[in-house]
Design a protein that fits this description.
- With 396 residues, this protein is an all-alpha fold.
- It has a single domain (10-389), classed as Up-down Bundle (Growth Hormone, Chain: A), CATH 1.20.1250.20.
- The protein has helices at 2-36, 38-44, 49-59, 62-65, 67-75, 82-99, 108-136, 142-170, 175-187, 189-193, 206-214, 217-247, 252-261, 263-280, 282-299, 306-333, 342-360, 362-369, 371-380, 383-389.
- Helix 3 (49-59) packs antiparallel against helix 18 (362-369).
- The longest helix is centred in the first third of the chain and has 35 residues, at 2-36.
């Protein structure tokens, strides 16, 4: 009986752990959809496509440089992770509320600055959540934890796509920022009531520890691999919304419904990759997902109907979220737990540099080369980093 009770208690703890990170990433997916819909917002007020991706790219740049303030999370590790989750959530929600009152057609610079600040809050929350995940996870369940994060994110994005698209088309785009702010406030309640494991570590020298990590061979290779593998994702992610709106001529609600229905394939893709990652290794899971994802992205070029294109997008979603679950677990493995905020944020920040940097130029790629070449480039740029991955062996 004693053994059975312990097993039940362990299962409860695992479930609560998965629920916690699913909850945190749900709000991130939901609020992220509001940001994702900004190109549609700007198209509706006749801002040129080549400027849209630049403005949005600058606004979300905190995701690239978030390691700069993530050092605070590790320096004051004794305060705990959820303290910074709460602060970041409040900042982000407040800024989303402010966006409701700003008309980007007349005040594009203030709009961009406030959007930037909202993403600063999100990155503070995100870095603290990731550090908490590293604190309480072991190698054998990091794949599944990242799958839970993926699922929370995609469910949030899916519901956000339906709800925000309806609100934007019915009441106006500015109202979607109010809803996003409310969702953030609701979803930081759960982590605030969950007890956090006490740490004995007090103030620590983050810079010294980080420099020591940089001397490791696998870290040096990772710093090259990370931005390269993210480039194709950035081009595809930015280009797909514009392609759906301009080339396929879909309405905002249709785009929202398609985005929402993608979670039907994204959820099993995340679970599949998370299990494979924990059981057979991160690299195998990455290859099993990344190679098919690239192939199906390129196949969009040969699609001659909206139905075929949507089917391909669903398949890409399955494998794309699978890549994300495995690759983030891979980055967690390569992170010193004492630098859970800084080092992991550095990895994901560099990934965002690759994706958002590529995204900024996606509008120009579409204008100069067309949609087919945009999808071709998105698929092909994944090949070199997958070759480099073979030589990265994590040794901590």
């Amino acid at each position: 009986m004693g053994g059975r009770k312990i097993l039940v208690e362990l299962k409860k703890r695992r479930f609560l752990k998965y629920l916690l990170f699913g909850d945190l990433y749900f709000q991130q997916g939901f609020s992220g959809t509001a940001v994702l819909f900004i190109p549609l917002y700007f198209i509706s007020i006749d801002i040129p496509v080549e400027y849209i991706t630049v403005i949005v790219g600058v606004s979300v740049s905190p995701w690239i440089i978030k390691f700069l303030w993530s050092t605070v999370i590790d320096k004051y590790i004794h305060k705990g992770r959820k303290y910074f989750i709460f602060v970041g959530g409040l900042i982000s929600a407040f800024c989303f509320f402010l966006l409701y009152f700003i008309d980007p057609s007349n005040l594009i610079i203030p709009f961009t600055i406030i959007l930037f600040c909202s993403q600063f809050g999100q990155t503070l929350l995100d870095s603290a959540a990731d550090a908490w995940g590293i604190d309480i996870s072991i190698n054998e369940d990091r794949g599944k934890i990242n799958a839970a994060m993926n699922i929370g994110s995609v469910v949030g994005a899916g519901l956000g796509a339906i709800i925000l698209a309806f609100i934007a088309q019915t009441f106006g785009y500015s109202y979607m920022f109010i809803i996003a702010g409310i969702i953030i406030l609701i979803n930081i309640i759960l982590p605030s009531i969950i007890a956090e494991t006490k740490k004995l570590i007090r103030k620590q020298k983050v810079k010294k520890l980080l420099l020591k990590e940089f001397k490791k061979k696998h870290v040096k290779l990772l710093l090259l691999f990370i931005p390269l593998i993210a480039i194709g994702y950035g081009i595809f992610n930015y280009g797909l919304i514009i392609y759906a709106k301009k080339a396929l001529e879909l309405s905002d609600i249709q785009i929202g419904l398609i985005t929402a229905s993608m979670m039907v394939s994204a959820i099993p893709g995340s679970i599949f990759s998370g299990i494979i990652s924990d059981k057979f290794g991160r690299k195998k899971a990455i290859y099993l997902s990344a190679v098919p994802a690239s192939i199906f992205v390129i196949l969009i070029i040969f699609s001659n109907s909206i139905v075929t294109t949507i089917v391909l997008i669903f398949i890409i979603s399955f494998f794309g979220y699978g890549v994300n679950a495995a690759i983030l677990a891979f980055y967690m493995d390569a992170t010193n737990p004492r630098l859970g905020g800084t080092q992991f944020s550095l990895y994901t920040g560099i990934a965002n540099f690759g994706s958002e940097g590529a995204g900024i130029f996606t509008g120009s790629i579409i204008v100069l080369l067309g949609y087919n070449n945009m999808f071709l480039i998105s698929g092909l740029v994944t090949i070199p980093p997958l070759i480099l991955l073979y030589y990265i062996n994590i040794k901590n």
